[in-house]
Structures are given as C-alpha cells and as structure tokens.
Amino acid sequence: MKNGKDFVILADGKNSVFDGDNLSALSSNKTLIALDGAGEILRKNSIVPDIILGDMDSISRETLEKFLALGVKILRRPDQNFSDLEKAIFHCKEQGAQSITITNATAGRFDHTIANIFFLKKYYSPHCDMRILDNGAAIIYSENEGLIIRSAVGCKCGFFGTPRCKIFSNGLKYELDNFELILGSSESIANEFTRGEVKLKIIGQCLLTFELNGKFPLTFQRQSP
After folding, report:
1. Total domains present in the chain
2. CA quadruple 14, 161, 222, 173: dihedral positive or negative?
3. Are residues 32 and 142 in the same domain?
C-alpha cells in the first residue's frame, strides 16, 4: 500500500543504463513518476508508473494512450520556464512529500545533469529527504545542520561547498575538523566510512556524494548543528 508521501521520479536520461529490477525495488510502496519520455523506457520494460508528468514532447501518443488505459495519471505541464524535473518536484511537494528519490538524472547532457544536481539545493527542505540515486551512487544536499549518516564501512564519499561551508566529521578515514569547502577552490574527495555510522556538522551549504556500488544502504537523519 503506497503511503502517498514517498516518491520516485524517473528522469529521461538518454545515456543511462536502465535497470528495471532496481527501479521496481526502489519504487516499492512509493509513487513512481515518469518524466515525459521516461514513459517510453518503462513501456519497453513492462513497468507501469503511477504518473506521467511533463510537457509531453518526448513521448508518443501510442505510449500515452496505453498507459492511460492502464489507469496511469497523465499530468501535462507545458510551462517552459521550468524543467520537467522541477515540475515533478513541485508536484511531490504539493502532495506533502516526505521523501523524493530522483533517478536516471545524471547520464544525459552536461547542462541537464548539472542543473539536476543543483535542484537538490534549489528545492532543499529539512523536512523532505531528497536525493539523486544513479549508477550505484547517491547525491544529497545539506545546509546548516547536523547529519547522522548510516551506510557501510568502506563507503566512498565526497563533499563540495555550494558555494562554501565548514564541515566537521566523526567516523571518516580522513576526519574533517572545521574544514572549509569552497566551490572551485577546495573540496574533500576520496574519503570513506570507517564505521557504519558517520556524524557530520555542516555550517553553510554542501553537496555530499556517496559511492554505494549497488550494495551499501544509505540512510540519514538531520539534526540541529
């Protein structure tokens, strides 16, 4: 039974290697939204989304009619001032989303990929777990808060100021103690978990990346810094 507060958004990444089994597991008990042409990917893999959303410029009439007959909700959003991914994020938040997982979003054009990553910052809320999960890696955004992150020993991670922050850590191979991250000037990469729970304090704005290799879980909780 879907609770209506957890969403998975399948973007139309043209060069992504699609894994239908992984998507089915990821979207179990969650509302699956396909962005426009991503509906074609799902049709080829015999997966039925809950919603198809977008300006409908990349999906065939035949596919739309097939999914409509199966009870899929079609949400036309023609406004060209926002990308289809942004429109889907708006929809999720209008529904009171507690979590939004975005996938198939980092394998297309570079301008789309960079914009998609920075939407994590643009639409950040401490009350909604929003992440990009692609190709065995996760990206999240954090701002002026503490984080308790649970994964696995050996999970590789990186931290980037967006545009800048100071970061403190407990549980990393290379601990960070008031380390300043500045976009285009200083970053922390090739770090890794030395235990299953890592504590971070972030003062400022930060993008965090985690290499999960398809086998590591990733959960986190937010706290006051």
Report:
1. 2
2. positive
3. no
Query: Which CATH number do you get for residue 212?
Result: 3.40.50.10240
Residue 90: what residue type?
Answer: F
Count of other CB atoms within 10 angstroms of residue 199? 14
Q: Report DSSP letters for 105-132, one per residue.
A: -SSS-HHHHHHHHHHHHHT--TTSEEEE
Global pTM?
Answer: 0.93
Question: Amino acid identity of 159?
Answer: F
CA dihedral 49, 51, 54, 60 (to 10 degrees): 50
Provide the phi-psi class of 46: left if phi over 0, else alpha when psi is between -120 and 50, else beta. left
Amino acid at position 60, single letter: S
Indicate the SS3 state at residue 40.
Answer: helix
Tokens 């979207």: give the residue.
Answer: 27
Nearest to 211 by CA among 136, 150, 113: 136
pLDDT digits 0-9 by tens, 144-176:
999 999 999 999 999 999 999 999 999 999 999
What's the CA gap between 190 and 174, in Å, rounded?
A: 9
